[in-house]
């Protein structure tokens, strides 16, 4: 039996390795220190400072609006009135599932409570009549 070689394509489910050709730089790299990089100035101009202040004020206003909206939503929303996001199919499906779960838990509580009531009734009958074990 012949010895298998790593990377061979004779086994099922295997494919031949890709032959990639990459573009290689043909010229010599530039000598160190010959590249000129422009440094930004250390100080901002008055126009840049004004624009930065305006952007900062706009961002702060948006953050305040978002916090206010979140606070209003938290105060006015009740747990029963939580509406799923319209774009989320998972949220809609989970809202339906929660309704099924709530209904099932209610049924389980009713059946369990009924069984406990029947057992208490039978116990009371046994105590009143004095019927004992056979």
Features:
single chain, 134 residues, mainly alpha, 2 helices, 0% strand, flat
Mean pLDDT: 78
Q: What summary fits the major beta sheet? A: none
- How would the global form be characterised? flat
Number of helix segments? Answer: 2
Q: Which bin fits the share of residues in helices?
A: 40-55%
- Note the run of SSEs as H and E: HH
Count of distinct strands: 0
Q: How would you describe this protein?
A:
- This protein is mainly α and 134 residues long.
- It contains two helices and no strands.
- It is flat and about 110 Å long.
- The mean pLDDT is 78.
Fold blueprint:
Blueprint: H1 46-76, H2 89-129
Give a summary of the structure in a few sentences.
The protein contains two helices and no strands.
